[in-house]
Amino acid sequence: MHPYLTRGNPRVLAHRGASKTVPPGNCAAAIEAAIEAGVDHIETDVQATADGEVVLFHDENLDEHTTGSGPLSELSWSAASELHLVADGEVTPHRLLRLEDALDRWPQLFWNIDVKTDDALDPTVQILRERDLSEQVCLAAFSMRRLYRLRRAMGPDWCT
Which of 70, 66, 71, 47 lies closest to 58 in space, CA to CA? Predict the structure, then answer.
């Protein structure tokens, strides 16, 4: 069995961090809330900005969950980092978070990373390879084509 599935408590996977506690999730506060609740496996989604920064974000468009609009892929990280997350129509103090920053801030966590777009695939692979997190990351994608690409890029030592 892959180490990702045997270390820590993989039976509890915090969806976008503690997204019910800190909606809409996928932000630092939601991850902190999950950690405080004793969770060590975090599910998150990633997409890429126009300049190739990998960001924790679920939806294709920014409209519903941020103070921005349109696709995240059309903004630079500089512009995206200024946006606030929105929950239930209310602006929150929370901001978007880069994958690199999350991995660096919480090196003890295990991550289930759903690569949402083709544009996010190569930079995500690069970030994970640089950090050699094969035992702490399980990669996912709802697109089978993208999942096959991830498997080829990462090799058999990575959980997918």
Answer: 47
